[in-house]
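Review box. Two proteins, two foldings.
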Amino acid sequence: MAAKKKSSSKRSSSGSDPKSKRTVKNKMKKTMHEYKHGELKSGGRKKVKNPKQAIAIGLSEARQAGAKIPKKGAKKKSAAKKSSSSKKSFSRKK
C-alpha cells in the first residue's frame, strides 16, 4: 500500500474550509432565489436588477456570516504590482 501524504495544517483564506463553503453556498442560494423572484433589495429600498449585484450581495452576506472569502481585487493587485515593477526596470536610453 502507498502511504498517504499528510495535508498541511494551514488553510488558505479562499474559502476552502468546509464550513465556509457551506455558508457561501447557503447564502448564495438564498440571495439568488430572492433575486430571481424580485424580492432582493439593495439598501432596503430599490429592487436589485443586475445579477452581478445580486452575487456581490450574496458574497457580502456570507462574509458577514463568517465565511473566509478574499476580496475581489486581491489577486489582481498582486499581479499588477509584479508586472508594473518589471516594466520600470527596462527603461530605454536615448
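Next protein.
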Amino acid sequence: MYRLAVLNSHPIQYFAPLYRYLAASPEIDLTVFFLSDLSVREYHDPGFGREFKWDVPLLDGYRHEFLPCFGARDCLSFWRPFTRSMRRRLAEGRFDALWVHGYAHQAALRAIAAARSLGIKVMLRGDSQPTCETRSRWKLAVKRIAMPALFASIDAFLTVGSANRQYYLAYGAAPQCTFSVPYSVDNEFFRTRAVAARAERETLRAELGFARGHPVILFAAKLQRRKRAGDLLEAYARLCSTAPAARRPYLLFVGDGQERAQLARRAAALGLAEQVKFAGFRNQTEMPSFYDLCDVFVLPSEAEPWGLVLNEVMNAGKPIIASDQVGAAADLIADGDNGFIFPTGDIAALARRLEQILSSSEHAAKMGARSLERVARFSFEADRAGLISALEFVTGRAPAAN
C-alpha cells in the first residue's frame, strides 16, 4: 500500500468525490491536507459575486486535516493563509509521496521543499496549459528560468489533459515522468441525476417560460469577462435572425457575476429579452436538471485551464461547443462528432456551429450520445490507474494491497 499525502488549497466540490474514491482503493492510504476551510461554510465567491454554500459533501469519506496557520484562514492568495507544521506532518505520516495540487501558493512550494528534504517523492498536478500563459514579457522571462528549476524537483507530473502535458514538457518535464490523471467529475452523480431530471423537464421548461418544441442553448459558468458569454449572446442573435420562428431557440445563462447586468442590457437592446433567460447561481445538485433541459452547451471562454462543466454536461448526453482556448476541448471534443471547437472570439464561426447542431434534433441527439461515450474515459477509475502508475514509478515498487 502506498502512503500518499495530498496538499490542496481548500475543499473543492470537484475533488471531494475523487478523494473518496481513492481513499476506498486498497492500494492507497490517503491523507489530504488543506490550507483553508473557507469552502465548507457559506462564503463569498468573487467570481459569482455572491455568498453561498455548496450543497454536496466536501469532507466525507476520506482522511483530511486543515493545517494550522498564523492568523485567519478565510482568504486565499499567494501568502494567505500562512500555514505551518507541514514538514512535521509529512515526517510523522511516513508518506511515500506528496501530491501537490498546483504551485501558485507559497505553502505548496514550501511543502515541495520539505518533502524533498525528507526523501519523500513529489508529484505535481495542476491545470496550467499554453493558452493560459501570461502575455507579460518580463513574467515570461522569469518563468523560463523559474519553471525548469521548480520542475527539476518534481518526480512525476500528473497530467489532466493533452494541453496540460504540453505545458509541462515545454518547461523541461521529461516525457517518461508524465502520467495521465485526467480531469474528471463524478460521472455517476451527474449521469444518474440527469436521467432522473427527465421526468421534470417540462416543468422546468415552463418555469423558465420556454415554449415546447424550441431548442435550448445553455451556458453555465461564472459570468466573468474571460468566460466571453457576450460572444455567445452575439452569436445567438445572428442565429435568431435566420432561424424559422417555429424552431427559434432559447438562450439560457446559469450562473452569476459582474457581467450579468451588461448581458441583460445587451439582450434587451437586441430585442431578445423574452428569448434570453438568466437563471442565476445554481448549486451542484440543481445543475443536472439544466443539463438535461438543454440541446447544446457552449463554453466560449478565453484562457480556460480546463472547463469541468463540459465533463458534467457530457454526462447528460449533450453535444458541446467550446473555444480553442478551453483546455478540455482538445480532449473532450472530437470536432464534428460530439461537438465543435471554434476560434476564440469568432462570433460568426460560433453561430455557424450552433446552426449545424440545432438544424436537426436527431443529429443533435446522436452527437450527445457520442459525448456520453467519450466522457466515460474521463473517470475516477482512470485517475486511480494513472495515479498508481505514477506511484509505482516514483517509489520503484508495485502496490501491495493492505
